[in-house]
Specification:
Elements (H helix, E strand, L loop, with lengths): L2 H20 L3 E5 L2 H10 L6 E4 L3 H5 L2 H7 L3 E2 L9 H7 L3 E4 L3 E3 L4 E5 L3 H7 L4 E7 L3 E2 L2 H19 L5 H5 L14 E5 L8 E6 L6
Parallel strand pairs: 1-10, 2-3, 2-4, 4-7, 5-8, 7-10
Antiparallel strand pairs: 5-6, 6-9
Length: 208
């Protein structure tokens, strides 16, 4: 990666981390996927009950593979679609996910179809760990929402083979399609419970 982009990511990440801390959330910066994996594993005690959302970023840093190989009660919804997983997630010690966007001042923006992911971020699991590439940082909430709707949503609709307008043309049409994945919008501007939400910012592009 270009040296100037690396420097920019480091500086911007520190701004985002200050914003997260002002909102009762904890932020970390990892230059690489490998550093991000070490940071995440340090936050997860052995024996933890762990659930996850359908995050590509969790896979891309190698966290899913590491948990499957380790001493954890890890339920990977990508390999097990048991309906009981959602109930498990609400009582889990750790919930893993990405974020569709994070603002420069530390607000989390997420959209969801079935809403299992946004509900678990908002309430339930004792600790939430979000893996976020620096490509997902947006200047403000409006820009974060546009990113979520016009970048993350169309790509995910295509990934899941859904029949939505955005899947066909690549941008949000504010649809009411039965397949829409923009059913619930979650804006997390403050965490009531300190030490619950942890955001690992990664100095590489991750996810969509």
């Amino acid at each position: 990666m270009n040296e100037n982009i690396v420097k920019r990511n480091e500086k911007l990440a520190q701004k985002v981390i200050r914003g997260l801390e002002s909102r009762n959330m904890t932020g970390y910066y990892a230059k690489t996927k490998e550093e991000a994996l070490k940071t995440a594993l340090a936050l997860i005690p052995e024996g933890s009950r762990i659930a996850r959302g359908g995050s590509m970023s969790v896979n891309e840093i190698g966290l899913s593979d590491a948990l499957e190989a380790g001493n954890y009660d890890y339920r990977n919804r990508e390999k097990n679609r048991d309906p009981g997983l959602d109930e498990f997630a609400f009582t889990a010690d750790i919930y893993l996910a990405g974020s569709n966007a994070v603002t420069e001042d530390g607000v989390l923006v997420n959209i969801d179809g079935n809403s299992n992911r946004v509900s678990s971020i908002a309430y339930g699991p004792k600790k939430v760990i979000l893996i976020v590439g620096m490509n997902k940082i947006a200047p403000d909430v409006d820009a974060a929402m546009k990113r979520a709707r016009n970048i993350a949503a169309p790509v995910n609709a295509q990934r899941f083979g859904l029949s939505t307008p955005c899947s066909a043309n690549g941008s949000c049409m504010n649809c009411k399609s039965p397949d829409t994945i923009c059913c619930q919008f979650l804006i997390t501007r403050f965490s009531r419970h300190k030490d619950r939400i942890h955001v690992i910012l990664v100095g590489e592009d991750l996810g969509f």
